[in-house]
Amino acid sequence: MVVEVQGHRICGDLSPYFNTLSAIHVIHDVFRTVNKNNNNNDDEGHITNNNIVPLSIEFDARVTLDGVAVVSHGPEGFHDGHGVEDKLWKDVKCIDIGDGHHIPTLDDMLNTITEVLIPATPPPENSHVLHAINVEIKYPTTTRGSSSLSSYTQPSLNDRVRIILEVLDEYKRIFYDNNIIIRVSSFNRDILRYVRSARPTIPIGTIYNNRVKENEDKRIPLSIDYVTWMDDEGYTKVKGDSVNICSECITRKHVKEAKKEGLDVMVWFPTIPSKGFIRDDNMDNIKLLLKKLMSVEVHNDGIPPIGVDVLCNNNYLLSLYYSYRYESSRSLNQNTPR
């Protein structure tokens, strides 16, 4: 199994302007170069030997006060104590987040993907290649808006999610025709419940985090409900499709138990790691994580080893390189006669 490497906030550290339209162009250039080299069968500097490298990106979605879905992690570009949810789109689009870059609408982002990335992906007949877009829906961080906006009513949580899903619907067909799967993930269980109810065919991922807080010496072991989300308020229990666990919290036990429940496992790296924990900024650290989590259990009955499915991190290119090199080396070792 080759780990799917996912660009955090589209292209990780390949561009400081994450979650922007320019980040799509950056990831396009990398993706096209990688697969061009691969198709030329040149062994020097290859990421794969004979496989198309799947495209996989992650970005964040929020909704403005007046109901426009945008791509924003938050609080980039805001200096007044208010985020996207407290502003109108006409004001959000004018905010310069650096060197003339701006927060795009979700529609603009998906349209740019269709115009820029899809032409660089393998044709539909390569049905074994599945590309992925992971949309993390952020829980709204609203405060009291300015008096000039007091006439606006904050959209409900369900309305915010509905607005995002309706934009995704517009691109469902073209993504399907080009072997691109849309996933939705969130820390918030209510968001995921709504997605599962409104769009039952969209894969959903539950994000888990249990990082050490400042001035704390110990952490409580991360507990995951793999089958259902804990439900103390009468909500319908829902099973997700993946567990997306912070690299600082995940253990081999988590991977093994998730696989037993038929769930995919994503590992994500925090942009700023806690002191003493693995960073994703060099080859040795990526090797350490993959070796720890990939070969969790080797069976003697021909069943392949189980491990993480997706690595979402900031060092996109380095992780992409090593995940395929690790798989190639591991396959050779497993096929060597004993």
UniProtKB/TrEMBL annotation:
<dbReference type="Pfam" id="PF03009">
    <property type="entry name" value="GDPD"/>
</dbReference>
<feature type="domain" description="GP-PDE">
    <location>
        <begin position="57"/>
        <end position="269"/>
    </location>
</feature>
<dbReference type="InterPro" id="IPR017946">
    <property type="entry name" value="PLC-like_Pdiesterase_TIM-brl"/>
</dbReference>
<dbReference type="GO" id="GO:0006629">
    <property type="term" value="P:lipid metabolic process"/>
</dbReference>
<protein>
    <recommendedName>
        <fullName>GP-PDE domain-containing protein</fullName>
    </recommendedName>
</protein>
<dbReference type="GO" id="GO:0008081">
    <property type="term" value="F:phosphoric diester hydrolase activity"/>
</dbReference>
<dbReference type="InterPro" id="IPR030395">
    <property type="entry name" value="GP_PDE_dom"/>
</dbReference>
